[in-house]
Design brief:
Strand content of chain B: 15-25%
Largest sheet of chain B: 6 strands, mixed
Largest sheet of chain A: 9 strands, mixed
Distance between the termini of chain A: 72 Å
Distance between the termini of chain B: 56 Å
Helix content of chain B: 40-55%
Strand content of chain A: 5-15%
Helix content of chain A: 25-40%
Structural class of chain B: alpha/beta
CATH architecture of the largest domain in chain B: 3-Layer(aba) Sandwich
Shape of chain B: globular
Number of strands of chain A: 16
CATH class of the largest domain in chain A: Alpha Beta
Number of helices of chain A: 22
Strand order of the largest sheet of chain B: 10-7-13-12-14-15
Radius of gyration of chain A: 31 Å
CATH class of the largest domain in chain B: Alpha Beta
Oligomer: heterodimer
Structural class of chain A: alpha+beta
Shape of chain A: globular
CATH superfamily of the largest domain in chain A: Histidine kinase-like ATPase, C-terminal domain
CATH topology of the largest domain in chain B: Dna Topoisomerase Vi A Subunit, Chain: A, domain 2
């Protein structure tokens, strides 16, 4: 594969930073003579030839080195997360493609002030020697860009950009060790990126990397050279040490990047990312060691890998005219019929014939000779021909049962439901929306322990206590933060790191006591191809769909243009062969109308189930209250009547019993009220349909 | 305790009225038993005590209650508690009648107030909750308050050249000192009997402060009248007393009230009866009562200083418009003019405002000249 260079025209990248490469700066001053009033005859400063001398290719590495915010390296805190995220995503992709149940180790180690060493290792298939430098040392090099296949990585930028960022901020090379088989030698590389040429530069082993022999000798070499490598799976149970012998990691890759960063907890942190990853990837085990050497393990809840996504051809509906023309030019097919059937999915020869008929083109005409107008007609014909939806087995959904499992494991709640939409198509790319919803449970502020809170406060870079609360805990909202602070009798503007111990205890108590269920906003977990999206929620189609959905109809309160309020967590997963991100840093999904529609339908599906649950809960509660009210007064009524009628105790009891019978009949009648459609509401949980998990059935089923 | 109670109830001789009232209370309880026996939801129909259920009887010139009723059901979430309270009040009155005792409405509130068994709720939280229920019982049983052996606290006083007997004690209302004879809440002929009277009319003033002025100046002696006040809106005892003075002793009644919507409304209640107690109008309303003052023209007529004005607030204006719409004011031109003028003035006047002229201006100048002119609003 030849080096990929983007020829960047200065005009098109305006605003991307200082343009020192010529035309951008010059042309603006030439084009605006009106600005220089003092000089009536502007001197001609540069000739076209002189300018031409400065016009040249821009290496993609140089471009992204300058525009690193496009890749998610705009601040140290995010840089650390992005590096972990890119490495983990690559690991999971590799494992799944090779059919290995993924085991991932994430080690973050502090090496200096705001400096971290990030090591991510997997038990994947490993990488062959020749490819290692290219994959980690060259931007826009990868396996996923040129094929339509569902995967986490898409562009081939991420991990090499992380390495480049580390190199730029610390000067340390990226270290990679990869083992493809216990019988073959392992390879160890230390790589830097030559940003000018967008090529890897190998530092160790005289520019050729190091070969590590297999077997015990290799283990010794790794240990002696100080190469980081986890060679054994952790023993599942320490007590059974004798029965389990240590299991070797037979293959895998570990990448270690040293970079400038900032470690925080809370929203948008590495911890948060890993937790969310665990929700959407129930088949993954992650061993995580944070900079304070705390070890956390997110264990898998299933060993079943998601079905392997298949690579597909584009679907005709999603192709744009320009792309169609290019494809016509590039095809090797001899006839239109062959071209259509071979280049697109879901086009049989019959369908091809119908398309050609509508476009008034012969099925046997040569694709390369199709003119512009004919191409236009062909494009129209494609739109007007019925073509079945793209094959759905190219997308692997998490599936409703696993969403429920994942949510239940990570999010506390009393009601869970999930909906997986049938696949749909945007721009010819099949995609699928899955939505999970968890209702109830304690808010994150009530879960936190005093020790964690103390640590969180010490680490926080928030300027005020209020900001700390808002950024650390999901969905508490402004009103919630105010409530907590007023309960703790603390001012909102204190610096979090300088709060005294007693005050922390007070704050902790306040956080425990304040019930935020009322003011709590819905927590939205966004996923694209099982990767959590943690930034730019406002720009994301998922958030927009959540906001534009009318949640009031489902029993939550929501003000116009706002995230609904309530103890609700919604997870939305978009799986697609090509997820349309709004930027390279993969933080937000673009709002294509087709995607918005599916999102809406998915959210409505879970919303309806939530509404049923809430209605039922309210109804049961109201009925209970109703009956309670009547029962409470029945005794008094019976006593009053008995006193008027000079009844004895027995007659009083008889009267009470009869009144009780009437009361029970009265409330029983109310139990079988009619629903909106005039049908009798049964006392049935099966009404909820499939894939609903009610944790505390006492609340929902205790009627009659 | 129980023994003692029994003993008292044995010795009590029930009057025919008491027997009738007890019968009504038993009917109320029978309704519950019958409903329960038939497996139906018990309810009481209570005559409605709202503006929509009163009508103005043109010929009698009093407010009468219509036939509209509100159903109160036990098995209705909003009404369950008041249904229970209704029966409680019934049982409380039954006890009072049987024991031959009377108590204040506040006393009954305490008699019936207790924590509901198995709940942290009280049968009655405040007396405000209890009083309307008592009125409900009065209307639904068609029994007057005294027939239920209940009375309200004394409010209002009376002084004048009249002697009467109250519960067997002779009282000379011309020798009552500065406080006057406190008008009890029940002044029925079986309790209060008029003996000797030389008064020629009744002057009813709004508040006791004004009444004290008149009493101190011995106005009633000079003008040979009975002087009463009702402490604002006159309670039933005062209204019933005025009614009896008017009808039994044929004394005309003149009212001296503030020049504000509240004052007009007090006059309206004395004259036609109130909406809430429309069922009592025939024993209380005095259609021939006259409004002596204060009038809207008095600011000019008496040349009062601007500092005694009190600005009308929005509620006053709303209330004045409402009063102007009442059927018993709607067709009276002088009243419409009076109300219009007050609204045009934009302020109200209290009777005390006349003190700004002179301490005894109201007793020596104002009322005597109005009486002399014979200029009253009807």
């Amino acid at each position: 594969m030849s080096p990929v260079n983007i020829k960047v025209k200065p005009r098109t990248t305006e605003g991307n930073g200082p343009m020192r490469n010529g035309q951008g700066a010059v042309s603006t001053s030439v084009a605006s003579p009106a600005g220089s009033v003092s000089e009536p005859h502007p001197r001609r400063r540069l000739t076209a030839e002189a300018m031409a001398a400065k016009q040249r290719d821009i290496s993609v590495s140089e471009f992204f080195a300058k525009n690193r915010h496009l890749l998610g390296f705009d601040n140290p805190r995010k840089a650390l997360l992005t590096a972990v995220k890119e490495a983990v995503d690559n690991s999971l992709d590799a494992c799944e493609e090779a059919g290995i149940v993924p085991e991932v180790w994430v080690h973050i180690e502090t090496t200096g002030v705001n400096r971290f060493k990030v090591g991510v290792q997997d038990n994947g298939p490993g990488i062959v020697k020749k490819q290692i430098p290219l994959i980690f040392g060259k931007l826009l090099y990868g396996s996923n860009f040129h094929r339509l296949r569902m995967s986490r990585g898409q562009q081939g930028i991420g991990i090499s950009a992380a390495g480049m960022y580390g190199m730029l901020t610390t000067g340390k090379p990226v270290k990679i060790i990869s083992i493809t088989s216990p019988k073959k030698p392992a390879h160890y590389f230390e790589i830097q990126i030559d940003t000018k040429r967008n090529l890897p530069e190998i530092i160790n082993g005289q520019g050729d990397g190091e070969n590590i022999p297999s077997g015990e000798r290799g283990h010794k070499y790794i240990a002696d050279q100080g190469i980081e490598w986890v060679s054994h799976y952790p023993v599942p149970d320490a007590q059974d040490e004798h029965s389990h012998h240590r299991q070797d990691v037979r293959s895998g890759t570990r990448v270690t990047i040293e970079l400038e960063g900032r470690y925080v907890r809370g929203r948008g942190s590495v911890d948060d990312y890993l937790e969310q990853t665990a929700i959407a990837n129930p088949h993954v085990t992650i061993h995580y060691i944070d900079p304070e050497a705390n070890e956390t393990t997110y264990s898998r809840s299933t060993t079943q890998l998601p079905p392997e996504p298949r690579e597909i051809k584009p679907h005709p509906y999603g192709i744009e005219l320009g792309r169609l023309v290019t494809m016509l030019k590039d095809t090797g097919a001899g006839t239109m019929s062959q071209f259509l059937t071979a280049s697109f999915s879901r086009v049989s020869s019959g369908v091809a014939q119908r398309i050609c008929e509508t476009a008034k083109i012969s099925t046997r005409s040569h694709p390369k000779r199709i003119g512009r107008q004919e191409a236009d007609a062909l494009y129209q014909a494609i739109q007007n021909t019925r073509i079945s939806a793209p094959a759905t087995d190219c997308i692997s959904s998490i599936g409703e049962p696993l969403i429920l499992k994942g949510l239940h494991q990570q999010v506390p709640g009393e009601f869970f439901c999930a909906a997986t939409r049938p696949p749909a198509v945007y721009r010819g790319n099949p995609f699928l929306i899955e939505v999970g919803l968890a209702y109830g449970g304690a808010s994150p502020t009530q879960k936190v322990t005093l020790e964690t809170l103390t640590e969180l406060l010490a680490e926080s870079d928030a300027r005020s206590l209020r900001q700390f609360l808002l950024t650390t805990f999901d969905g508490i909202g402004r009103a919630g933060a105010e409530k907590i602070l007023s309960e703790a009798k603390m001012g909102p503007r204190q610096t979090p790191s300088r709060i005294k111990k007693e005050d922390i205890a007070q704050l902790h108590a306040a956080m425990k006591n304040v019930n935020l269920t009322e003011g709590q906003t819905m927590q939205v977990l966004r996923y694209a191809n099982r990767v959590p999206l943690q930034f730019q929620p406002a720009a994301c189609a998922i958030t927009q769909a959540v906001i534009s959905n009318n949640w009031r109809a489902y029993g939550l309160s929501q003000s116009r243009g706002q995230i609904p309020v309530g103890p609700v967590t919604v997870m939305v997963h978009m799986a697609s062969v090509w997820v349309p991100f709004t930027s390279e840093s993969k933080e937000a999904i673009a709002a294509y109308p087709e995607i918005m529609k599916e999102l809406r339908l998915g959210l409505q599906a879970v919303g309806r189930k939530l509404a049923m649950y809430l209605n039922r809960r309210n109804r049961v509660r109201q009925e209970g209250e109703r009956r309670e009210v009547f029962l409470r007064y029945l005794g008094e009524v019976a006593t009053a009547v008995a006193s008027i009628k000079d009844y004895g105790d027995r007659s009083r009891k008889e009267l009470y019993g009869r009144l009780l019978q009437v009361a029970e009949r009265k409330t029983a009648e109310a139990d079988t009220q009619l629903d909106d459609r005039g049908k009798k509401i049964d006392s049935a949980e099966q009404n909820f349909g499939e894939n609903v998990l009610i944790v505390n059935p006492g609340v929902a089923t205790q009627d009659s | 305790m129980a023994k003692k109670t029994k003993k008292t109830s044995d010795t009590v001789t029930l009057t025919s009225k008491d027997k009738k009232t007890l019968g009504s209370i038993r009917d109320l309880a029978d309704g519950v038993v019958q409903s329960a026996d038939r497996g139906r939801a018990p309810y009481v129909d209570i005559p409605s005590r709202s503006l929509s259920n009163v009508r103005f009887n043109q010929s009698k010139r009093i407010i009468e209650m219509g036939s509209g009723t509100n159903r109160r059901e036990l098995f209705n979430l909003g009404q369950a508690k008041s249904y229970m309270q209704t029966l409680l009040v019934g049982s409380g009155c039954k006890r009072l009648i049987e024991q031959g005792k009377t108590t204040s409405i506040r006393g009954l509130f305490y008699l019936l107030k207790h924590t509901i068994e198995g709940a942290s709720e009280e049968t009655f939280d405040t007396q405000d909750e209890c009083d309307p229920i008592i009125e409900d019982i009065e209307v639904s049983l068609d029994s007057m308050r005294e027939e239920l052996h209940l009375y309200a606290k004394n409010a209002g006083a009376m002084v004048g050249p009249i002697t009467l007997v109250d519960s067997g004690d002779g009282i000379d209302c011309s020798r009552m000192g500065s406080g006057g004879y406190s008008i009890p809440s029940i002044v029925e002929p079986n309790i209060v009997q008029f003996k000797k009277n030389s008064a020629e009319f009744v002057l009813h003033v709004e508040k006791d402060t004004v009444w004290r002025r008149f009493n101190e100046d011995k106005f009633w002696r000079e003008h040979n009248c009975i002087l009463t006040h009702g402490g604002g809106q006159p309670p039933r005892g005062v209204r019933r007393m005025l009614h009896r003075l008017h009808y039994e002793l044929k004394l005309p009644v003149y009212c001296l009230l503030d020049n504000d919507p509240w004052g007009y409304y007090i006059y309206s209640v004395i004259k036609q009866g109130s909406i809430n107690l429309a069922y009592e109008s025939r024993r209380m309303a005095i259609p021939a009562a006259r409004f002596l003052g204060l009038r809207s023209i008095d600011y000019e007529r008496c040349q009062l200083s601007p500092s005694v004005q009190i600005k009308l607030n929005d509620q006053d204006i709303k209330r004045a418009r409402q009063i102007a719409q009442y059927p018993w004011f709607a067709h009276k031109k002088p009243w419409q003019k009076e109300l219009d003028l007050m609204l045009k003035n934009g302020f109200k006047l209290e009777v005390e405002a006349l003190i700004s002229k002179d301490i005894s201006y109201v007793t020596e100048e104002y009322v005597p000249s109005r009486l002399e002119e014979g200029n009253f609003l009807d």
